Amino acid sequence: MKSGETHSIAINGHEIALEGAEPIWAEIDRFFAPYYPVSTVAARHPEITISASVDGAETREPCVDLHRYVAPSTPEITGQIEQHRRPSGVTVTLDRANRHVTIVAGHPTELNLELRIMLRDQIFLPLERSAGAAMFHASCVQREGRAAFFMGEREAGKTTALLSTLSTGAYDIVASDRIKLWVDPASGELRLVGHPSNTNLHHRTVESDPLTRSLIDELRGRYDHEGKFSISTHRLAALAGCRLVPEASPALVVFPQILRTSDGLSVTALTDRDEVARLIAENAITAESSNERARWLNLVPPVSDEGRGAIIEAAVAAASRCIAYRVHGTHAEVSALLRDPGWEAALAHRAVNNPSAHQELSRNISRV
Fold it and tell me: Which domain does 159 fall in, by range?
């Protein structure tokens, strides 16, 4: 294929033209599919054009510190042209008048990382917010179109819950780290869509979970300073023998909390909608959130703080009507519960505030 051949991505009616060698966009498609698949058909009316190329040799080690790719940059401005020397070492030139972005990297890996993070955080996310989507920190699985999603603070057990439910063989992955929620203006129904990201696995998880034990030798010595390793969600789906599904209907939300010491597994049905709404809202990614990416490209007009607040409020109110549980226990206790193929029914049965289940609850906990 010619190096200037154009591909495209369409999102919420917006077209983005992608110029560059076919292997560049094939790699991008592997990361973004099935959420934002790359088309080999040129955009008819592109709103933004992105040209990408590599100018350098592959003999040196590439920069793989993701903090450098999400960091903002200050451009040198000449007329309508802005040139960003990104913290990653990649050069990004922005012709704002023609809405044309040119990216040149010294290594294919650096180009891939800069492209996928810039596209996701600086273009796709603002476009989806303008369409009414709110972003939340969560993992999510689905079965027959019905989504169960797991929310909680860092180290609460979202990945543990994801891996445990996948081990049943009955679920597909919707998202490993982030989801988008919004109320469809046409139907009034709440929609849940996954967001492309890698899966961060703690070394304890890799070593203890049946799905990931096969990675031990490969990952030994390759964990980051927090003891985690990042693998593609596509690879996780392959390990689990499941599909990666972009969207499902939200039905169940679980708030896990992994405890260091055991006080016995505790499952609580959350029936107070205000409490459920508060817990969901705590996981929203906002302008004040540490998970929010700094804006630096600014090709998509931002949603106002007031508008974003209204979007989050609408999504939270709709999501709070999902069936909700809080699950507290050690890693082994929570994993054992969620690896049961009938774990959704088991949550209701084990709930301490379900009077009919008290006697059976004590017997079941003793078996975990």
Answer: 134-367
